[in-house]
Amino acid sequence: MLLASEGLHCPLLLLFLLFFLLLHPVHLEEAEEVPVEVIIDSSPCSSTCGLGLKTQTLCLLRDSKTAMEEAPGRKDGTEVSEVCRVHKVKCQESWQCGLRTVTVTSGQRVEVDCLGEVMEAMGTFSWRVSWRYARGIITSDDSLFARWEAPELDRVILDPVREEDAGTYRCDVQDAGFRRVKRVYWGVRVLPAGILNLDQ
Question: Looking at the domain assignment, is residue 197 inside a domain?
Answer without folding.
Answer: no
